[in-house]
């Protein structure tokens, strides 16, 4: 199973597209749809390159999700978890109650955990509230 176009579109809708390198709030050079690996100050890419980087990043996070999750997933569940991990990293997923509940077969309990991941720097961010709600809706959707 691989991240679907719907899953990629979810990531794109929240990451936004920037064709010139910029420093994100965490002070990390970023480009495209949130790519950070190998990004340098002054770097400029095309929209096509941003799409390639997105697919490469999503594949990397998809592999991490599939390594961590021990129960069967629907397409929507995989897509939601890849978006979550794309934003927060595999270490956060790996140490989360969301993953613990999911691997215990408590899909409903796992879905309820998305809403706990809406803060950055101790402050709740409206963009993260919206993203987690969209991820939860995708996770809970019947495929």
Shape: globular
H/E series: HEEHHHHHEEH
Task: Quickly give the structural class.
Answer: mainly alpha
Helix count?
7
Rg measurement, Å: 15 Å
Strand content: 5-15%
| Largest sheet: number of strands, sense, barrel closure | 2 strands, antiparallel
Under CATH, the topology can be stated as Lysozyme
Q: What CATH first level would be assigned?
A: Mainly Alpha
What would CATH call the architecture?
Answer: Orthogonal Bundle
| First-residue to last-residue Cα separation | 13 Å
Number of domains: 1
Measured as a percent range, the helix fraction is 55-70%
Number of distinct beta strands: 4
Q: What does the average pLDDT come to?
A: 94
Low-pLDDT sequence parts: none
Strand order of the largest sheet: 1-2
Write the SSE topology:
Elements: H1 5-15, E1 18-23, E2 29-32, H2 47-68, H3 75-88, H4 90-94, H5 97-103, H6 107-112, E3 119-120, E4 123-124, H7 126-140
Helix pairs in contact: 1-3, 2-3, 3-7
């Amino acid at each position: 199973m691989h991240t679907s176009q719907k899953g990629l579109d979810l990531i794109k809708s929240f990451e936004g597209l920037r064709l010139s390198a910029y420093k994100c709030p965490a002070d990390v050079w970023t480009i495209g749809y949130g790519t950070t690996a190998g990004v340098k100050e002054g770097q400029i890419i095309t929209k096509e390159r941003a799409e390639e980087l997105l697919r490469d990043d999503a594949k990397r996070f998809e592999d991490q999700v599939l390594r961590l999750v021990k129960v069967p997933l629907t397409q929507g569940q995989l897509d939601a978890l890849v978006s979550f991990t794309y934003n927060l990293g595999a270490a956060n997923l790996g140490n989360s109650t969301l993953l613990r509940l999911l691997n215990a077969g408590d899909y409903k309990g796992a879905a309820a955990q998305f809403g706990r991941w809406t803060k950055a720097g101790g402050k709740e961010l409206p963009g993260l509230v919206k993203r987690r709600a969209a991820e939860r809706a995708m996770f809970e959707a019947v495929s």
